[in-house]
Design brief:
209 residues; alpha+beta; Pnp Oxidase, Chain A; 2 domains; seven-stranded antiparallel beta sheet; globular
Length: 209
C-alpha cells in the first residue's frame, strides 16, 4: 500500500495547473485507424510491449520478432503471434478476462514511438496464424487487436536515455548471470547457477520459435 503523501496531486484539475495544454497538432494526430506512416513504422519495428489488465492491476509484457512481426490485417486491426516463453500465459489470461490492451512499438535508431490502444482477443483463426509464420514455424495462437487509438509518441525518452547512443550505455559487466539471479531469488537447490545459466542461454539460442 502506498504511504500517505501530503504533496499528492489528487485531481486532473490540480495537475493541469502545473502543465501547459497539449499542442492542438498533437491532439489532432491521434487517429482511430492506421495511417500509412504508422503502417510503415510497424513494418520496421522488431519490438513491442503490450499492456493488459490483470484484475488486480496492470501488466506490461515484451514481444519481439523479425521487423514487421506485428501485422496489420487492415487499417483498424493488428495481430501478432505467440512464441515460446515462460508458459505463465499472463498476457493471454489477462486478455481473455479483460479485452483492453495497449501496444508500444520501438524501432531502433528512430526517435519516435508508435502507440496503439484497443480491444484484444486471443485467436487460433487459421487465416491469421498463416500470416504470422516466422522462421518456418507456425504459432499456437495469436493476439488480434481492434484499433481504437493510434498515434506517434515523441522520442524524448530515447534522447534522455541515450538508448541508441553506445557512448551512453551503462557498464553491465558487474551484473550477475541469469543463473545466479534465479538461485539467489528462488533458493533453488536442484540446479547450480552455472547449470541454470547454461539452460537459459540454450533457450535463447534454440527455443525462440
Amino acid at each position: 500500500m502506498i504511504e500517505p503523501d501530503p504533496y499528492q496531486i489528487t485531481s486532473v484539475e490540480e495537475l493541469r495547473t502545473y502543465y501547459d495544454l497539449p499542442n492542438p497538432l498533437i491532439v489532432a494526430s491521434k487517429l482511430d485507424f492506421l495511417h500509412d506512416h504508422m503502417l510503415h513504422y510497424m513494418r520496421l519495428a522488431p519490438f513491442v510491449a503490450i499492456a493488459s489488465e490483470t484484475g488486480a492491476g496492470l501488466d506490461c509484457s515484451p514481444r519481439g520478432g523479425d521487423s514487421g512481426f506485428v501485422k496489420a490485417l487492415d487499417r483498424r486491426t493488428v495481430a501478432f503471434a505467440d512464441w515460446p516463453g515462460n508458459n505463465k500465459l499472463e498476457t493471454f489470461s489477462n486478455i481473455i478476462a479483460d479485452s483492453r490492451a495497449g501496444l508500444l512499438f520501438i524501432t531502433p535508431q528512430l526517435d519516435i514511438f508508435l502507440r496503439i490502444n484497443g480491444e484484444a482477443i486471443v485467436t487460433r483463426d487459421p487465416a491469421v496464424l498463416a500470416l504470422l509464420h516466422e522462421q518456418g514455424k507456425a504459432p499456437k495462437a495469436a493476439v488480434r487487436i481492434a484499433v481504437k487509438e493510434a498515434y506517434f509518441h515523441c522520442g524524448k525518452a530515447f534522447r534522455r536515455s541515450g538508448l541508441w547512443n553506445p557512448d551512453k550505455w551503462p557498464a553491465v559487466a558487474g551484473f550477475p548471470s541469469v543463473g545466479r539471479v534465479l538461485t539467489d531469488m528462488t533458493k533453488v537447490t536442484e540446479y547450480t547457477s552455472d547449470e541454470l545459466t547454461e539452460w537459459y542461454e540454450h533457450e535463447l539460442k534454440e527455443g525462440l520459435y
